[in-house]
Design goal:
191 residues; alpha/beta; Rossmann fold; 9 helices; 7 strands; globular
């Protein structure tokens, strides 16, 4: 049976950086699907969007339609994989779940890994990343978003009866965080 792991975290926590460091991802043994990148590819062709930050502003129906296209590709591929995405999308004061429970049931998620960092670290990383426009401006907003994300993944885990792993991506300790994600990934997927 296909094994899929959802890796998520607040924007700026460093999940994509950690995933790029995984031994299985580097040697091609584990496929990493960046949902934001996949969504942008579809949004480019259908809506002429050129920026990932524009994708998070799409309306609900369009977002769900794009996500369903990607989910169908994941199901059809029958490959073990890691899905790199956000637990929620922040749109001003509104939070939209990054997935529905039904979508996660369809693709049969085996576990959720939540990459976390302190709100101060998230803010610092965001200020250094000039390639993205983040949906927050204060530490209080980051604190709130982190809480919303934990609530969402906890709900998913309870409903789907799957484990959550929380990995702290502290400044200067990315190698340790990547090693822990590597260990968990190998335990679930193998390799």
């Amino acid at each position: 049976m296909t094994k899929l792991i959802l890796v998520t975290g607040t924007a700026g926590a460093g999940k994509s950086t950690i995933l790029s460091m995984l031994s299985g991802a580097r040697d091609g043994k584990i496929k990493v699907i960046n949902l934001g990148t996949e969504m942008l590819e579809i949004a480019k062709s259908k809506f002429n969007l050129t920026d990932r930050d524009q994708v998070r502003l799409l309306d609900d129906a369009t977002t769900i339609s794009i996500r369903n296209s990607i989910m169908q590709k994941i199901i059809e591929s029958k490959e073990d994989a890691i899905i790199d995405t956000h637990a929620s999308v922040k749109q001003g004061r509104r939070y939209r779940p990054g997935f529905s429970i039904e979508e996660l049931q369809k693709i049969r998620i085996s576990a959720i890994i939540y990459i976390d960092a302190t709100s101060e670290e998230v803010m610092e990383r965001s200020l250094l990343d000039h390639t993205r426009v983040r949906a927050y401006a204060t530490l209080a907003e980051i604190d709130e978003w982190r809480s919303v994300n934990i609530s969402i993944i906890s709900t998913f885990a309870v409903y789907l009866n799957i484990p959550i792993y929380i990995i702290y991506n502290q400044a200067g300790k990315q190698q340790e965080a990547a090693a822990e994600v590597d260990r968990i990934t190998k335990e679930i997927i193998g390799g």
